[in-house]
Structures are given as C-alpha cells and as structure tokens.
# Entry
Amino acid sequence: MAGPFNPELHVDLKRFGAKDLDMCMNCGTCTTICPMSEDSGGGFPRRVIRLVQTGQQKKLESSLDPWMCYFCGDCTLNCPRNANPAEVMMASRRYLTSRYDFTGLASLFYRNPLTEIIAIVLVGLFITALFVFLHGPMVLHRVELNTFAPVKWVELGDWIMAGTLSFFLLAGAVRMTWWTLGRRDMLRVSPMIFIRQIPTFFAHLFTQKRWARCGSHPSLIRWIKHLLLVSGYLSMLTLVLILLRWFQTDHVYPFYYPQRLWGYYATVALLYPTGDFIVSRLRRKEPIHFFTEASDWIFLVMLFLTALTGIMVNVFRVNGFPMATYIIYVIHLAIAVPMLVVEVPFSKWSHIMYRPLSIYLAGVKKAVADSTGKGSDAQALEPAAAA
Amino acid sequence: MDRMNQSETERCGNQPASEPRVGVYICRCGGNISDVVDTDHVAEVCKLIPGVTTAKVHTFMCSDPGQQTIIDDIRQEKLDRVVVASCSPFLHELTFRGAVMRGKLNAYLYEHVNIREQCSWAHKHDPRGATAKAIALISAAVGKVRHSRPLEKIRLANNQRALIVGGGPAGMKAAADLAACGLSVLLVERSNRLGGKLASPQRMFPTGAASGEILSKLESDMRSTGRVEVLLSSEITRVGGFVGNFDVTIHGPLGPSGSMTDTNVSFGAIIMATGFQPYVPHDGEFLFGRHPAVMTTVALQEALAAAPEGKMLKVNGHEIRRVAFIHCVGSRQVEGVHQPGTDGRLNKHCSRVCCTTVLNQALQIRSRFADTRVYDLYQDIRAYGRGHEQYYTDASRAGVVFFRYHGDEPPAVTAEKDASLHIRVKDYLSWGETLEIEVDLLVLAVGMTPGPCEQIVDQLKLPRGEDGFLQEIHPKLRPVEISVNGVLLAGTAQAPMNLQETLAAAGAAAVKARSMLVKQHVELNPYVAQVDANLCEGLGQCVAECQYDGALKLIETSRNGRTVKMAEVNPGLCVGCGACVAVCPNRAINVNGWRLDQYDEMVDGLVRELVPA
# Structure
C-alpha cells in the first residue's frame, strides 16, 4: 500500500524545474533508453516521474534513484511527449536536497531564486564589513597581504565556516540516510556493513566514475570536464583550509614553485570548465543545457568569479600592486564565502555530499539484501519475518 | 401411396413440353482448372448426359470470345438452357447470365458450376477424383437446369416517401439530405422536441463548438427544404410491409384538433435514427445513487453548464477541490466482474466517445477552475478521431493526473465520514501498486446502450448484434443497410458513434434511401415461394412455420365451386428461405429457382453413371 497521497507534489516539482512533467504518458521509453537504469534496478526515470505524478512524497524522499542519474539527456532526446525526463530527475535532486535540509533554506532558495541572491549579497556584505572595520594596517609601498589580513585570523574564519557548513551538510546526510534505509534497517543492520562500504563513498566522491559509463560520447567528455572541476575545487579547498599558511604568503616564490603551480592548476581547473559550462548553457545545444534554473546560473557564475578574483589577487600581488591586491582580496572573499555558505549546504554544491552518499547507501542496501539472503530488489529490505 | 403418386404426377407434369436443349461450357481457366481436371474428357462425358446438345471447352469462358460462343450456340444450336462450369459463382455467375440474356434467353435458364474452387483447387493431388467430381456436379446442374422455368424479377409499386424514426441529429440530417433530393419525408419523434441528446447544452469535441449552434443549423437545413413533415410526441405503434410498401401506424397529436389519434401511412423506406441511451449505473455501482458526490458524465455536463466561474468548481454548492473520472462505466464489461443489465446482457463493447468526453470535461474543469485538481482513471485512452489526441495532450499539459486500471480489477470506491470519497485503484502505470485517492466528486464516464425501438425491431424482425445495437448487413461493404430490405440505419442506433460519425452515417443512409425511392417500382429477386393451387389443401403448416410476418397466409378461395383454404405468398415479404417447403406434406409449395423437382434431378444427376462409348 502506498503512503499518503500528496496531490500537490507534481505541482511542487515544477517549481524545482520539472516544467514538462505532466506531459509524461508513462510509455517507459526513458527507462528503456537509460544506460544507468537497469543496473540500478530502479526503473527510473519513469519510476521517479510516476512517484511525482501520483504524489507519493514519502517514497520519493526515500528513493536514491534521482542520484543515480548523471543527466546524459538520452531520455529527454528520445521522449515522444517532450516531457523532459532528465530535467525531472534534475528537479527531483533539487527537491530532495531541499527536503534533506532541515532549515528550510534550501527549499526557499530553490523555489525563489531571489532569496538566494539576497542571501549571497548579505553574506558578501558581511564579509566586506568585516574587512572594512577589522582589517590590519595597509602597507602601501609593497604588498603585505598578511599584514592587511593576518593569515591566522583568516584561517580561524575558514575553520568556523567549514565547521558550520559541515554541520548543515552532515545533518542533511543523516536525514538522507535515515529516510533511505528506514528506521528498522538503520538499527537492525550490522555496523560492519556501514564501515565496509566507506571506500565506495570516497571512490565516488573523487572520481564520479559511474558518470563515465552514462550515456553517449558527449557525456564522457563532460565527465572529464567535471572531473577537472572537482580536482580544482578540492585543490582550492585543500589550499585554503589546510595549507593556508603555506598558500597565503607575502614572499613571491619562483614560478615553478609547487605553491604557485598548484594554485595555477586549481585556477585553470575551475575557470575552464565553469566558463565552458556557462557557454554551453547559453548555447543550449545538449539536453543537459536546454534548461538552466537560476540556481545553476548562480552556482556557475559565483564559482567562475571566485577563481577569477583569486587569480587576480595573485597577479596583483606578484606584480607588486598593494592597494589593488587588498581590494581584490576582499572582493574575492566576498564572493567565495557566500558561495560556499549558501551553495554547499543549501543549494547545488550539496551534491558533493549527496552523490557519493547515495551510491554508498545503495551499496549498504544491497549488502543488507544480500545478508538477508534475498534478491537485491527493494522488497528485500522489508524485515524478514523469521528474523 | 397417394403421396408417391402425387409426387410422380408432379414430376411428370413439370416435364417441359419438348426435351430441353442444354449447352455445357467447360472453362480451363488458363490451366487453373485444366491442369488438374481433364476438361476434354469432362466435355466428352457431358455429351452423354440426357438433354445435353453440345459440350465445349474454352481456355477462358469469361473472355469475350468465350461468351460469344454461348450466344452463337443459342442461335445456331437452338439451345434453351445453358450450364457453365468454371470458377465460383460469386465471380462470374452474373457474367454468364448476361451472356445468356444477350442470346435472347431468359436469364434464369442458366446454371453455374464451380469446378475450380471445388474441384481443381480442392483436389489438386487427385486429378482423377477431381475430374469425376466435376462430371458429377455438371450432371447435377444439367438435371436442375432442365427443369428450370423462365423467371422475372418481381416488380412492385414504390411508395416514394421516407419515414425517419427519431428526431436527433441523425434523423434530422437524413431528413435534410433526403428532402434536398426532392423527396418527401416524415420524421417521427417520440419526445416533444427535436435534437435528441444534442439538446442539452455542451461544448462539443473536437472543435469546441456549442451543441446549440450545431442543432439549430441541422434544424434549419431540414426545415428550409419544405419537404420534411415533423411529428413530435408521436410513436410508431405498428409497422409492417416490405420495401416500397411499408405500412405504419403512428400514434400522435395529429389532425387539426391535436388530439392523440392513430394514423396509417405508407412509406417506401424507413430510416432508423433511434439513437442511444446513456448507460445508467446500477444502484451502488461505484456508490452511484447512494452518495451525492457520485455522478455520470451526462450529469456533469449539466453541472458544468450551471457552475459559476471561480477558482474552484462548485457542484450543488459544494466546492470541489479534487475530482476523479472513471472511464468505461457500462462499457467493456467483463463476465464475472460486472453485473449484467436487466436484460441479462453485459455491455462488452467500447462506447468510443467516452474517452474524449472525459478529456474534454477534464480540460474544461482545469481551464475554468484553477484550484480543482483532476484525476483520470482509465483502461485505455481511445482518443482515436482527428483532433481527439490533442485533448489528451492538452489534459496532460493542464496537469490532469492519469491512473490506469485493468478491466477485471475496477477501482473500489468507499465513502468517508467527511463527505469525501476514497478511491483505491490498482494502478498499472505504478507497476500494479494499489494507490489511494481522496476526492470530493467522482464522475462516471458512462457509455452508450441501444436506444429504445423494441416495437419496430420486433415487428420488422430487425437483427441486433451481440451488443444489442442494430446490426448492419456487412460492416464494410454495406454499412448502413440492415437485412430487412428498405430499412436503413443512421447513427447511434447502429453502434456508438460521435456526432461526426453519426452525421456521416445519416448522410449515407439518406443516399441509400434515395436510390430506392427515386424508382417508380421496386425490383426483387424472383427466388420466392410459390404455391401450387392444384396441390394445396390449406393445411396451414407452412404458415405456422414461416418466420416472416405476412409473407405467407391462408386465404379462402373457390375451387370447383367449393370454398377452400389455400396458402398465399406475399412476394414482397418472402425471403425464399424454404422453411415452408420443408413442412408441406403435399409438396404444394416451392421456392422459385430451387424447386423440389430440381433437387430431385440434381440428386439423380449426382449419382448418374456415365460411361463414354
């Protein structure tokens, strides 16, 4: 028996981007054509679309299917009704993100992009104000960034921010885990199963290797670009969170020094893919770029600007423009911080957690099913009567 | 013993004055026959059959030279009977009858033998057997044709006026088309207004036109001819007769006083435009009749017309937040699942119009009342007509949510305490999962059942299909004719149709009626029963056996100064079935063209031993 029927669910999903959802006549072409559907045993995208159409909110919230889709767009290209199944999967990921988040901010930002922009501006102004009122002495005859913004204070701010974001993100992850596995399974399963699956999480966090198998040729290229982006992003996080004292120096090292080379790599790895994605979304040539929600634009533009201002700080510093360095440094942080604060727990960035976690949880579910000696289908998760 | 003697007398008495001269023509059919049947041998043997004057073989009898051979032989050999042994009579019987007529012989002094389908094709691995069978069949045909009598088509005076039963769109369209051809039409309508089911206001698919506009156009088309007489509040109480001469009694407010009287009128043709009745769910079917929030699509049509504009649909003052439609109520019924109607019959047919009707209504609700959610529970969406599919597309786009159930597992409806309804549906779009829906209104998409026309159907013996609707002769080749000659079908009396199809059918019926009514006389095939006045003793067994009212009756006549009873045939009503022939102990009644003495000869012919010299 299905859970309570939420007749507004399909209306709700439209606000998350599934605008053509109602056109679906459940022919199943999308599921047949989907390269990922079969080995996930999910019957998606149609199963996800049907859950939305029939208002089965609880089932949708406990489904991992939306995270198994990497948006190759084959389903959308072949949909006879132009219902855009890939976009429904995208929208359901946004919806799930907003449901995992207990604060309600994600839901607010996705449904009303203006609130997201306001939040970013507010955080940006807060960062700017911090520097305006609390910055250190400004040395103007040469660049002394660490005098203007002492690295120990910046590092402290970094850690406060990282801690806060991790809290919200982990809270979301806990909700996702709870809903997906169900209470009974959570408590019944041996902890060893959870531990044994941990490598899966990190493997997918760093590689997104399932994506490489998804869809046709353009998807593979996109995966490589995305991989580049991830490496740039993780580089930047490492440099800023762990190696900030080494990275933010006033000494100008030679060009080949790892500190500079790594920074340049991260810059290129962020600028090239984001720039490329922005151009593709403007051209709308591939299904994944047919529709761009405000949340997508904010994400891409903010990331691009973060990398751009970051490299500008470096350029001004290395070439000895003190005032320009300090101003662009403040701008850089006024962009990077709100991007992280708003995007990581409450918007698109959160998929850095949910994507690998979903595959981890799918692995746990399968392990549970195997351990109870049943098939790997969803029913196997029902507790065995004998046990 | 007496009977034997009589029979012998009959046979001898029927012997032609002079021995007939029969020509037998055997076709090779370009090898189709002659590759198996030894046609030359057949011709040689056939010459031995008593009465055969000449027997010839031709590669293609149906060709011009082949036919000319027959015509020439009739003149030169003074033939007075012809037999052609070739393909199926369906193919060329009329061809050779024509040739015989051109040879100035009566067309009914001809017999056709099928030695292709029945010999060479059926027995191609047994040439000797096929050849022997061909000889036997020809021998039988020669025997029969020797006793054939010249026949003429039956000509009867034609009453060049049409009766149209039913004043709905089909009746009005047929009346208008017939009258436009200059024919006089009487349209009889049971109710006190024209329009039938079209009279209730609604927006029609697929054009969105208002029913009232279509109706007034139909009526003005009909009235403007000046040749259509319309009788409202009138019923047909009796109908008899046959094509060209139907006698009808109409009960209605006739004459200057307008009082209810019976009037007898004659017509040449009758068009049945008696329409359909919407299926009425039985008490409790999906809580129909037991819960105020359950209604049919017919009732919703009226509710929609009366509903005030707003954010939410209001029915009887109640706000409808959620409405569900269930398709196929009273259609596509399944044995063991659905309850048969009062006549014990299940409506197994698809009513064809309900799917698009539901989509049309769902779309109207979604476009007029933004806050009313619509659920559609279907088996199949059969939006088959031009433009109908757009309704499905538009309904989808408008956010109508569809659920698909199987016919043998219909949705279950229960009443909730808060006056809403609870629907459980095993949804095959959700992998057979049972889903639960709460609604404030449930609309049953009722199908079509045959309209009331029992009186006429019984009296004219009109055939009905398994679905109870009047049945055409052939669904493709003769789609608006029924097996009673002179009666035509227009619209939903025949089958569920939408308005477009109904009007097309009515137009076709009008054309068919016109082709019958323009002639001064009606011509009927001569294969009807005939009574031998010398043998009939007026026993009346044949009359009792006859299934066709008025085709046979006992009359009193005088014979040798005595008044005696005798059977009499009405050739207009007789269909030549032969039931009377089988029961007459005196062999006093026969079907022309298929007389008993001909059967005797055919049997003799089949067993005749023929050995060539």
About this structure: Chain A has two domains: 9-100, 105-360. Residues 151-181 of chain A form the longest helix (31 residues). The interface with chain B takes residues 1-2, 5, 7, 10-11, 22-26, 43, 47, 50, 53-56, 81 of chain A (CB under 8 Å).
